[in-house]
Specification:
Blueprint lengths: L6 H12 L4 H17 L2 H6 L1 H28 L3 H6 L1 H18 L4 H5 L16 H10 L1 H26 L10 H12 L12 H47 L8 H10 L1 E5 L4 E3 L7 E7 L2 E5 L2 E5 L4 E2 L1 H5 L7 E4 L3 E7 H10 L1 H18 L1
Antiparallel strand pairs: 1-8, 2-7, 3-6, 3-8, 4-5, 4-7
Helix pairs in contact: 1-4, 2-4, 4-6, 8-11, 9-10, 9-11, 11-12, 14-15
């Protein structure tokens, strides 16, 4: 197989085809949107219009190139139709075609370039937690819709009430139910622009009730979403920890129920290389299991390397709670942390694990003498 003439270009094309967003794409979105904003500021655009135009066209060329690369890549994989009908494909197409089509149709250039705001949509797939939000909205759709119905009912009832109470006093602002709807929405959301306000005593009483209702409605929405996010976060953490626990040989003999029990006790810690985990002389309140990576134990006169599946920090929990050595990561590592209280619970529930940890601690103590 022949080597590509331009290896750097080949790598760039491969990265562009295989990822939702690359660093270059993030840069193009940032520069393009900033240039679009400068386009709307007349003094800034008059001063640097050549640079602004150049940057906008450069970003557009990049997104067109990116779209064409992905079309070619998906066609080769036989997934062209799937890509073009997907949300990512539609966003890529909009980013590449919206501005050119507007310019071709005769739109004013400043107006056409406003469509470059669609480039912001390209970063949506990379937003952390977006998948969690989608799951929360699906799982909590029933309660959320119920609160939405309450919101609409309060808005409608409030607008009818204010129309009845204020129409004779303020016919221009409360002369119809649709006109009163604007006031009801602004009041229920506690925005309170102040452009439309009731003046009759009963009208103000209704307004006060609507404002209080707004606090309750949005409090319900916030509570539902917060509870859903917390549940999804716990679920994701549980699955990640379960996967890590199942890969540790120390827990290999446990059944699914026991692993689930252990998983609830452990928390995951992601650490970069050369990170100090334990300092000698510090109080020990937890032990660690290495799910991935490696650590170095700095003992007097020697250094011990521990890899995946090993554990450390147990001696302080079994002895006088004082750490006997420095421990640091030698590469990117994922550790499972077992706190002191959970350590004692685990030892009580699973005597076989307690025996293994105790035996290993005694062996290490003899080696370190």
């Amino acid at each position: 197989m022949s080597k590509p003439m331009f290896p750097a270009l080949a790598q760039f094309v491969a990265a562009t085809a295989g990822r939702n967003m690359t660093k270059a794409a993030y840069m193009a979105v940032s520069v393009g949107v900033l240039s679009m904003v400068l386009l709307t500021v007349d003094p800034a655009y008059e001063t640097a219009h050549r640079w602004v135009d150049f940057l906008l066209w450069a970003c557009l060329v990049y997104f067109v190139f990116e779209w064409l690369v992905r079309l070619r890549h998906m066609r080769r994989q036989g997934r062209l139709a799937l890509y073009m009908s997907s949300s990512a494909g539609l966003v890529d197409a909009l980013g590449a075609l919206a501005v050119p089509l507007a310019l071709i149709s005769g739109a004013d250039p400043k107006t056409a370039w406003l469509l470059s705001v669609l480039w912001v949509l390209k970063v949506v797939p990379g937003i952390p937690g977006l998948r969690q939000l989608r799951r929360v909205l699906v799982l909590e759709s029933g309660p959320l819709v119920s609160v939405l119905v309450i919101f609409l009912m309060v808005v409608f009832l409030a607008s009818v009430a204010e129309y009845f109470l204020e129409r004779d006093v303020q016919p221009q602002t409360f002369g119809s139910v649709p006109a009163a709807l604007w006031w009801a929405v602004v009041t229920l959301t506690t925005t309170g622009y102040g452009d439309v306000v009731p003046v009759t005593p009963l009208g103000r009483l209704v307004a006060a009730l609507v404002m209080i209702s707004g606090l309750g409605v949005f409090g319900l929405w916030t509570g539902i979403l917060a509870t859903g996010f917390a549940a999804e976060t716990r679920r994701d953490n549980f699955l990640k920890t379960w996967e890590s626990v199942s890969k540790v040989p120390f827990f290999a003999a446990l059944g699914p129920a026991a692993i689930a029990d252990v998983t609830h006790m452990l928390r995951t810690m992601e650490l970069p290389a050369r990170t100090m985990i334990i300092r000698k002389g510090a109080q020990g309140d937890c032990m660690y299991f290495i799910a991935a990576g490696a650590v170095e134990v700095d003992l007097p006169g020697k250094k011990v390397q521990l890899g995946e599946g090993a554990f450390f920090g147990e001696m302080a929990l079994l002895g006088n709670n004082v750490r006997g050595a420095n421990v640091s990561t030698t590469k990117v590592s994922r550790l499972l942390v077992l706190d002191l209280v959970d350590f004692r619970v685990l030892m009580a529930r699973h005597p076989d694990l307690a025996e293994t940890i105790d035996a290993e601690a005694k062996r290490r103590a003899l080696e370190n003498k």
